[in-house]
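pasting for ref
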Amino acid sequence: MPDDTLPKSNSVIQAGMAEGLHIGAQLYVSLPDGVVGDLAFGESRAGVPMTPDTLMLWMSATKPVTAIAIAQLWERGLLELDDRVSKYLPEFGQKGKELITLRHVLTHTGGFRAGMAWSNTPWEQIIQQICNSRLEPNWVPGKKAGYHVTTGWYILAEIVQRLDGRAYPQYVREAIFEPLGMRDSWIGMAPEVYRAYGQRMGLMHITETGQAVPTTPEDAERNAVMCRPSGSGHGPIRELGRFYEMLRERGTLTGTRLLLPQTVEALIARHRVGMMDQTFQFVMDWGLGFILDSNRPGEDDMPYGYGPYASLRTFGHGGHQCSAGLCDPEHGLVVAFVFNGKPGETKHHERRGALMRAIYEDLGLTG
């Protein structure tokens, strides 16, 4: 149950529930000296209370997990960031895509955005379709930017599989989630695992009309079982918070090292600067798989941004109309949240912005 540790943040979430934007939410906030809030609100589905242990869909907040996997292979000497994708997926290097590098994919400057938005097509066919796609017209890789909703992340995950030998869902469990104590986090889980969680599995709802229309149980299971490296991550939001705590601590959490400090610095450095994103229609800076704060001081316009008080070093990633994970290194702040209602882009932008402002104000980090 919510407490009074983060009163303004609590009020924003409760107000959204009263407005019908969501029927429940999870919020996790931590500073270097400990957890500030590990909170759950409302219901995870009709008649079932949301708890901090409820597993929720992360949507695109899943994407940085793939970036960490690629970074681990980089540390192992299995790839270089400026290698062409076709070095590892020869079938990708056709129809104008021959010069696309791993760095281009990680910074959304590759130019193969189309298709596969939320597909139930088998993995091998998805990879084949992306490899057979054409470079977008008038696109020079690295010279033009546009958020790749799904395609690039399948390609990166396929490279992880080919170089490491483990299936991507197994890799992220064994090399990322389990070492970090993220025992209930998954990108693609076996059907029997999904069913064993029972009512711990929360449902996502469409709330654009003010009425919460839940994902059907059949679709919810299918979405959890399918491995979509771009957006099918599931877990308690506190565990996504642990992921960002590892990055805040420069690659190590509770004695377990996932990455070297210099690798973390490379991931969150500005690799794409001042480029108009053709998908979001906003000038956005990117690290390697991470959205970097791109607002001018005092502004809060960036799509899926971090609010007006976030430092320019803030990095993270949002999930479609529902979630985000982030770290503000200057304040030592980690935040992860998920709402179980998708109310449309405009209302989510307002809700997300109000929550981020409230968190900083609750913590006195507005100076």
